[in-house]
Amino acid sequence: MDDAAEVPEIRQPTGSRLARFLDSDLWASFRRSKTAMAAFVATVLMFALAFAAPWIVPQNPYDPAQLDLLNSNLPPIWKAEGQAPFLLGTDDQGRDVLSAVLYGLRLSLIVGMLGVLVSGTLGIGLGLVAGYVGGLLDTIIMRVADVQLTFPAILIALVVDGVAKASFGGALDTNATILLIVVSIGLSFWVQYARTVRSSVMVERGKDYVQAARLIGLSTPVIMVRHVLPNVTGPVFVIATINLALAIITEATLSFLGTGLPETMPSLGTLIRIGNKFLFSGEWWVVAFPGIALAGLVIAINLLGDWLRDALNPKLQ
């Protein structure tokens, strides 16, 4: 017998990440839910159509040189007066409604995703600090969050948007306007992330792995970001999914009220505001199709978020 003790072999997890995911409870829950599968397909289809718009639509609705007033107010192609290639008709500027919807859908998605990124980054950072550091800093952050919760998110966005536009006047171009709306949305929805992350961090900071990280001399920022943050991201994904729909609705509301994106670069909200002027004159398609696209997108994302919330809830397993 050898004097040296035999070292047991440590087996590494086999299979790729994709294989482990396909063998997980999350994937099994997804396959069992027809609603989640339908919502996922609808969401992916809308994303694909929106970002492939330059290659599948007959015109760029943001380019005035491609618009022709002779093609204005055409009905959808299945109507007697409809003309190809305007499948869903045109508006009073000769803008193809299908092109405008897909370009507007892409712009709404970009603004919504950037808004979620801003609100998530701000909320997660403040939640980590409040939950891990605690004390006076935690009290200040949470009291600010409590005050903001007393106001509707759309009101916060309107205030931020109005103050910025009053400060800069007419100096804002289209890109600056988009950035302003993104910041407005981000400042409207950070509270949900901060409160959720703070609660999770307060549970995690007392666990053994955090104490071990302190004993070996790791700094507080490293412990928070590298060790605590990965263990509190589950609820964050649920909030981000649901807030994407809320961010898109907020942007559409701002644009519908005339404080969002301009008519020269319309999002879905701007298209609905423009089409609303022609609703009672019989040109229903100008407002109907952007409204259907917005409603379909928000419903699909919300259904996906509801499934993800239930799938990640251990009490429902």
From TrEMBL:
Task: Give the transmembrane region(s).
Answer: 36-57, 109-137, 174-191, 235-257, 278-304
Q: How does it sit in the membrane?
A: Multi-pass membrane protein
Q: Where in the cell is it found?
A: Cell membrane
Tell me the Pfam families matching this sequence.
Answer: BPD_transp_1, OppC_N
Keywords of the record: Cell membrane, Membrane, Transmembrane, Transmembrane helix, Transport
Could you tell me the superkingdom of the organism this chain comes from? Bacteria
Q: Which family does it belong to?
A: Belongs to the binding-protein-dependent transport system permease family.
Its protein name is Dipeptide transport system permease protein DppC
Underlying gene:
dppC_3
